[in-house]
Write a structure and sequence with these properties.
six-stranded parallel β-sheet, 2 domains, 337 residues, Gfo/Idh/MocA family oxidoreductase, 17 strands, alpha/beta, Dihydrodipicolinate Reductase, domain 2, seven-stranded mixed β-sheet, Rossmann fold
Length: 337
């Protein structure tokens, strides 16, 4: 089996999670790693000693001609490396959100179409077995028609200094915007949102209501307010309500409690866990799916690019509504991609 030659751009927090997974995927060879920060490059060279380090992603793509590129830069820096990699003939995996504005997201959709290469965005909830099971139960009619989905996704205060460059709806809420589209199999028609700030230019709390075209309602709660002493870095709850049944999911599940000398911890297994020397979980399954698609040349029916584009459009409308104090409608052609 021919190896898939992969290059990584951006060696920050998310890259650390990806770096635990790439070495265990059969037939994947990381040939290049790129970051302008020498300390980050040095750290990742310990993980990928055979990969060539680069400070410039253009130079890396030109020299290495990778089959696939993993783009892990901040969201406002996605467009140029993704476009360049696609034009160079590489398939691309980019972490969510696809882009930081609808215009940039549409630009990447067009770039992928023009290149004939696959572009997938990391909407990892689609690989969480709980959400996948919920979708199957909905499809079997066990909940009846889904009337509403409430999604709370709050993270620790300590992360706000990393992500205060953008509204939490783009980092936290984007997960559940995509999840609601997926589970309801419908598009958002109108959003209404409110926000609150602790004296920062960018809000650290935002609530939004999404009205779907067939009448479903989505409620999003996102903030960076969990205290450092919280037993988990995240507090997630999803309530799916249909006219014949309901489903509730929580993260962390409470299936494991770790009690140390200073504090108790409820670990989350969303980003991954290690058992018998191998990393498992939704992220590992997602990256393996990307490689399977690259190797087979088969576009993904799970991580569709149009869905990532829709999520950015809705997130942008949420922020617009929160800033203006007015509802924002999405035209049908915007919602349908």
């Amino acid at each position: 089996m021919k190896a898939v030659r992969l290059a990584m751009i951006g060696l920050g927090r998310f890259a650390s999670a990806h770096a635990r997974i790439w070495p265990q995927l059969r037939g994947v060879e990381v040939v290049g790693i790129c970051d302008p920060n020498p300390a980050a490059l040095e750290s990742f060279r310990a993980v990928f000693p055979d990969a060539r380090p680069y400070a410039d992603w253009r130079d890396m793509i030109d020299r290495e001609s990778p089959d696939a590129v993993d783009v892990l830069t901040p969201e406002h820096l996605h467009v140029e490396p993704v476009e360049y990699a696609l034009r160079a003939g590489a398939h691309v995996f980019v972490e969510k959100p696809l882009a930081s504005t609808p215009r940039e997201a549409e630009r990447l959709v067009r770039a992928a179409e023009a290149s004939g290469r696959m572009l997938m965005t990391g909407h990892v909830l689609r690989f969480d077995v709980r959400y996948a099971a919920a979708k199957e139960r909905i499809a079997r009619g066990e909940t009846g028609t889904v009337r509403s989905i409430y999604a709370k996704r709050n993270n620790g205060k300590k992360y706000f200094s990393i992500y205060n460059r953008i509204s939490p709806v783009f980092i936290l809420g984007i997960h559940d915007i995509d999840m609601m589209h997926w589970l309801m199999d419908d598009d958002v028609e109108e959003v209404t949102a409110v926000r609150s700030s602790s004296g920062h230019e960018t809000e650290d709390l935002i609530w939004s209501m999404l009205k779907f075209r067939r009448g479903g309602i989505g409620i999003l709660e996102n903030n960076w307010l969990l205290p450092d002493a919280a037993p988990s870095f995240m507090d997630v709850r999803t309530e799916i309500t249909g006219d014949a049944g309901s489903i509730v999911l929580r993260d962390p599940e409470g299936g494991m409690t770790v009690m140390g000398a200073a504090a108790a911890e409820w670990p989350s297994f969303l980003s991954g866990y290690e058992a018998h020397g191998k990393v498992g979980g939704p992220l590992a399954q997602e990256l393996e799916h990307f490689i399977d698609c690259v190797r087979s040349g088969r576009p993904s029916d799970i991580l569709r690019l149009v869905d990532a584009w829709k999520a950015v459009r809705v997130a942008s409308a949420v922020r617009e509504s929160a800033v203006s104090g007015r509802p924002v409608r999405l035209a049908p052609e915007e919602g349908n991609g």
